[in-house]
Amino acid sequence: MTIYPFQVKTIDGEEISLRQFAGKVLLIVNTASKCGFTPQYKDLQELYESHKEKGLEILGFPCNQFMSQEPGNEEDIKTFCELNYGVTFPMFAKVDVNGVYAHPLFVYLRKQTPGLLGFNTIKWNFTKFLVDSKGNVVKRYSPTTKPYEILKDIEALLDVTNPIK
């Protein structure tokens, strides 16, 4: 199985299939606007701008499960991201990433790449999942991993995806 069968809701409320990202390398991130890691939005946006033409998509999924650090509604989140960080990469409706109400995409991501000591749960905001151009989950990164620390892994997948430079 791949991530492509999953349906997600955009931050504007439109239900879409992840199949629309087939052929792209994806970095899926659970985000929050009032977190110590929130400034990673800036680095994520820069990474997106420098690599989107090479086949990278960054998908942001706001989550309020960690100390209520994403309290706003989708419009609040969208405005915050655009005004404060110039975010243009796709953002989605708020989701739970753990527990009984966890979005099926995050249940799948967690199972594919267990965290530290094999635990299945996501520990905090800005956990990142790298997905190859065929929809396979490649690796999980901790919230403390800065987006540019993932760059070599992303570029290795982009080179496979786009062998002609």
Automatic annotation (TrEMBL):
<keyword id="KW-0575">Peroxidase</keyword>
<dbReference type="InterPro" id="IPR029760">
    <property type="entry name" value="GPX_CS"/>
</dbReference>
<dbReference type="GO" id="GO:0004602">
    <property type="term" value="F:glutathione peroxidase activity"/>
</dbReference>
<dbReference type="Pfam" id="PF00255">
    <property type="entry name" value="GSHPx"/>
</dbReference>
<feature type="domain" description="Thioredoxin">
    <location>
        <begin position="1"/>
        <end position="159"/>
    </location>
</feature>
<dbReference type="InterPro" id="IPR013766">
    <property type="entry name" value="Thioredoxin_domain"/>
</dbReference>
<dbReference type="InterPro" id="IPR000889">
    <property type="entry name" value="Glutathione_peroxidase"/>
</dbReference>
<comment type="similarity">
    <text>Belongs to the glutathione peroxidase family.</text>
</comment>
<dbReference type="InterPro" id="IPR036249">
    <property type="entry name" value="Thioredoxin-like_sf"/>
</dbReference>
<dbReference type="InterPro" id="IPR029759">
    <property type="entry name" value="GPX_AS"/>
</dbReference>
<protein>
    <recommendedName>
        <fullName>Glutathione peroxidase</fullName>
    </recommendedName>
</protein>
<keyword id="KW-0560">Oxidoreductase</keyword>
